[in-house]
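Cross-check.
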Amino acid sequence: MAVSVVMPALEMAQETGKLLAWRKKEGDKVTKGEPLLEIETDKVVLEVEAPADGILAAVTSFEGAQVPVGQTIAWIVAPGEQPPASASTSAPTARAVTEAPRSTAAPPADGPKISPKARRLAKELGVDLSRVHGTGPDDVITGEDVQRVAVSSQPALSTIARLMAERTTQSWTTTPHFFLVREINATGLVAAHEQLGAEVTYTDLLVALVARVLAKHPKMNASWTGDAIHLNPDVNIGIAIAVKDGVVGAVIPNAGAQGLGNIAQRRRDLTDRARAGHLHPPDVIGATFTISNLGMFNIDAFSAIITPPQSAVLAVGRIADRVVAVDGQPGIRPMMTITLSSDHRVVDGAQAAAFLNDLAGALEAPQTWLG
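Predicted model, tokenized:
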């Protein structure tokens, strides 16, 4: 039975996605779960997996096309099976429209060989392909060759950096942010981290504790839908991951119900795949609250911008020894600054303060919350 390949929707406000590259060509055999195509949305660049085993057929959208979410762009059929009639009749028109520009841009027969990825990257990075020397098999110009020239010449805005700039600008100009700051005595957090060992990071502890406190404060886990507040039934924690030229937000679903071991394993997997450019749509969908931890970069404190439709983001600074008052006398304690950014359409100052107060208690006595 034929299975459609559609442009996925990653968030409520998304209307289209850009098809960057097919990993398979029409007529190729595909296996369910293997990377099938690469897309760009207003969140990030992602791999999309094949939804079924079979043969790729009736491809109607090609590299560079902006495709409405939910639209069928190809079919996966069994050997000898024909795609639905509607797909076969519409495919030639789509091919003519999308492939014509590519054929006019094709190099002459005696010109350099250029991989599709290299051609796409050259367009995005503004690289003149006549300046690129191919290092691939038979001197084909690869994506790495294009990136090498881009770095050695003039700075260029990468796809991830551009998307991040667009998203943060939109959020900052449309979301009424307000900020609350709290100093935390991290003695208990440091002790818990040392007890658990290197496999569990401070970020893992933050995810687990924030998720548990959010269960007591559903407004902080809510979303703004444009004209109303939506209370999310699950606590899905987004973590900001630094990648080359930008930051991507990956999701640990149902974090409040997961143990630290599962959270740590999920975080490691997401981090590795984010930095390798191998995130999939489920990895970035559905975050209800985000944590941005810059402690490992020796940042004391900062304010983060909310990722719509979420209502809040927690910015976490480093743990550092400071002189503080202890029973009326100066003492040295490991201290940490956390800053909560909230959407004033969803929560007010008192609600955000109550959440931050409970979170401070959880961070100062983590074992009480983790069990």
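The longest helix spans residues 85-104. The longest strand covers residues 312-326. Passed to J.P. for a second look.
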